[in-house]
TrEMBL record:
Gene3D superfamilies: NAD(P)-binding Rossmann-like Domain. This is NAD-dependent epimerase/dehydratase family protein. Signal peptide: none annotated. Residues 10-247 form the NAD-dependent epimerase/dehydratase domain. Keywords: Oxidoreductase. It comes from Acanthopleuribacter pedis. It holds the Pfam family Epimerase. One of its GO terms (molecular function) is oxidoreductase activity, acting on the CH-OH group of donors, NAD or NADP as acceptor.
Amino acid sequence: MTQINRSAPVMVTGATGYVAGVLVKKLLQAGFTVHAPVRDPHNTDKLKYLNALAAESTGNIKYFKADLLETGSYAEAMAGCELVFHTASPFKVNVKDPQKELVDPAKLGTRNVLEQANQTPSVKRVVLTSSCAAIYGDNIDLQQTPDGVFTEEIWNTSSSLAHNPYSYSKTLAEKEAWRIGDLQSQWDLVVINPTLVIGPGINPHGTSESFNIIRHIGDGTFSAGVPHWGFGVVDVRDLAEAHFRAGFTPHAKGRHIISAHNTDMFAMSQTLLPRFGQNYPIPRKTVPKWLLWLVGPLVDKTMTRKMIGRNVNYPWRGDNSKSKRELGVSYRPLADSMNAFFQQMVHHGLLNKVG
């Protein structure tokens, strides 16, 4: 059991990112000193959302220059920290060089952070933001599971550089983390495996793929319909709470599926109709799989026929019972998360009314 000294600073990588931003908000509101390693500590425009949070919180934030791919660059930021949250990893699907843009930052970045933890005597726990993408690659993989549900015991074996490279990068990064963690006894490793993250972030102009999906639901991209493409989803605020509890729950260990709902893209879009359906082109019907298979790759290069074949009309089912039982996480209703996320985009002018 690991007890973290709450008066010690806490390091968060990727602090300007979608998930980490909400986690930093929680830490600051709880009075912690957050060490935030960033590429450019003097880029006030990029740091303005974090600075605004710190200004209205009892905690404070300190910036340190660091690069995910540069060995040793986290030493200064990690000094004196007992708890390290490693959230930094790219989430994008439209890439030209998956090795360079996804695998290297995910795997080498994880290695640099964890090897720095080995060299920092104060560190007692590392909480790694992995993904359910390290558990499965395609929805059809559900058919190979022992009980027809994805659990923490399962690893993604169907992804590669050529197929689902993002999922492949997350799998390699988490395996690297366990390899390094198992070779030492100074700190313990707790892993968070979220599904698709939705909900309002601290930066309304976020670049995570999550923003693109919800934006497309409301900007007419999917006005002809959306497929029954199964997802697990979780609110970013609930995910931040899960991270916090993973850091400070003494008995926390292993992997944790953090997912609120087994749903699909059509069901997600339908939660927006009562509030936004009159003014925005929310899809009201589904796209047949055969039609998506035919035209999908022509519209979006990242949507391959193999991906469509292995995901559309297949459900996603994950077991979140460990997160509830061991971390005490509770989850918001799907409609609450979707409507809050959509409203944030509307408020900041990212979506235009029809007519």
